[in-house]
Amino acid sequence: MKRDASAIMGVMSAPHPTPPVAVILARGLGTRLRALPEQGGALDPQASAIAATGVKALLPDAVGRPFLDHVLTDLADAGVREVILVIGPEHTAVRQTYATPLRRLTMDFAIQEQPRGTADAVLAAAKLIGDREFLVLNSDNRYPVAALRELVAHEGPAVIGFHRAGLIAGGLPATRLAGFAVIDVVDGELVGLCEKPSIADLEAHGKDTLLSLNCWRFDHHIFKACSMIDRSPRGEFELPTAVMASRALGCRYTVIAHHGAVLDLSRRDDLAAVRVALAGHVIDL
Q1: Which helix (H) or strand (E) holds 13?
Q2: Read out DSSP for 50-103?
Q3: Strands 158-163, 210-218: parallel, antiparallel or unpaired by DSSP?
Q4: Is residue 284 included in any domain, yes or no?
Q5: Overall domain count for the chain
Q6: Highest mean pLDDT (candidates 48-52, 89-93, 134-138, 261-265)
Q7: Any idea what DSSP says for residue 3?
Q8: Residue 228: Cβ-neighbour burial (10 angstroms; 0-12, 13-18, 19+)
Q9: Is 50 exceeded by the pLDDT of residue 26?
């Protein structure tokens, strides 16, 4: 049976969906980064000067490129074409670093006046985002490109759930995982988040526990939730709290499970291992 030529052309010419904008959270105080290095954490003068500012995203790799260059390259490889970087008003070094237009990405900056938490950081970018769907990720984590591609391709709110065993195999200390959020999943949907669980809680969930390392896809409904939540016991407006508030408003999140490793650059003594992991990664912005 012959197929209609116009139907074939229609399929071939169907437009690709517009990729979501990526919002990178880089406003934190960098308290752990400013702290004295732990064993093996001594820094060279360039890295030490950057660490003193608390801007983790600008810490250099072995050849002097900012860690953020690697994050941006991975986003471009995953199909993202627009990035919004949430920074503080004092972060002029970040603006200067990315003052020159990039080939693969357009960059914009959202100002979070005070470091009041991740939910507040998302609100700081709301005007630039508008009613588009968008990704949210940390500036001090390098996520697997495969995971980012899945998040870019997904339609609707979602979160990457990283398997605990995969994170440990990738080099994250088991004790550090308590700094993330445990994801409770039913039939592939997020039903609960336990922010900064105790070690005992992590052990109780088992080795296949899924953890959120702040790698999300949102739609505009998250803004209302971010604006309605109270401060956490840690004194911040936190994104996991906003996510659960948005669920109460009817929003649903798909959990995309992933076994890959994530690089974490939250402490000074992470830098040596991160530099080794980044060796050979080609920057293409």
Answers
A1: none
A2: HHHHT-GGG-B-TTS-BHHHHHHHHHHHTT--EEEEEE-TT-HHHHHHT-SPPS
A3: antiparallel
A4: no
A5: 1
A6: 134-138
A7: P
A8: middle
A9: yes
Residue 267, classed as helix, strand or coil, is coil
* Three-state secondary-structure class, residue 9: helix
DSSP per-residue codes, 145-213: HHHHHHHHH--SSEEEEEEHHHHHHTT--GGGGGGSEEEEEETTEEEEEEES--HHHHHHH-TT-EEEE
Is 78 a domain residue?
Answer: yes
For residue 44, which amino acid is it? D
pTM here is 0.87
DSSP summary character for residue 14 = P
Q: How is residue 235 written in tokens?
A: 């004194």
Q: Which residues pair with 163 in a beta bridge?
A: 210
- What is the average per-residue pLDDT within 21-25? 97
With a cut of 90, say whether residue 87 has pLDDT above it. Answer: yes
Residue 285: inside a domain: no
- Length reported for the chain: 285
Q: Residue 9: pLDDT band by 50, 70, 90 thresholds?
A: very low
- Of the given ranges (89-98, 163-172, 173-182), which has the lowest mean pLDDT? 173-182
The shares of helix, strand and coil residues in the chain, as percent rounded to the nearest 5, are 40, 20, 40
CATH number of 77's domain: 3.90.550.10
Band (pLDDT 50/70/90 cuts) for residue 247 is very high
Can you say whether the dihedral through the CA atoms of 24, 112, 37, 166 is positive or negative?
A: negative
| Domain carrying residue 62 | 12-278
User: Does residue 6 lie within any of the structural domains?
Assistant: no
**Mean pLDDT, residues 132-145 taken together:** 96
From 104-118, 132-146, 151-165, 190-204, the region with the lowest mean pLDDT: 190-204
At 192 the pLDDT is 94
